[in-house]
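Next comes one such specimen:
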Amino acid sequence: MTCTSGSGCLTSNASDTRGFKVKTSVAEHVFYWPMCTRKHCSSTLLPYKIIYIVLQGTSIFTDENHPIHLHGYDFYILAEGFGNFNPKTDTSKFNLVDPPLRNTVSLPVKGWAVIRFVADNPGTWIMHCHLDVHIGWGLATVFVVEDGPVPGQKLEQPPLDLPVW
């Protein structure tokens, strides 16, 4: 999804007390989840940038909230709601002043949540529903976060004496 000026998607110029801004005319990295099907799940390559993920509850298999957990990061919960997420109207509900910082969000039944984080921890990280049976239903995915531009933002090479079987 590409967000452009006037599209209604992430177009606020507001910033929170931590200094993050939502840009008006620059394409942001926005992903919709679940990203898997019942029989296929692939990893998603994330750039070393600000990431927005729209979590959409479909209630196809069950009518219960999904506690969605992301390994390797804490994230801001910008908004939650019911029904299908609408980027033209629901972005006005974003809390850009003091959003809660968590590593798990409760995805409402037949609802949505939007999270935001800076993908600045290179490596492979899983995002999944904490109800284990739901992982088999496709409520899990893996993010592969790219290295950053400077040496301190890159994964280190494994040690030469690392045992390999």
About this structure: Strands lie at 29-33, 43-46, 50-56, 66-70, 75-82, 101-102, 104-107, 111-118, 123-129, 140-145.
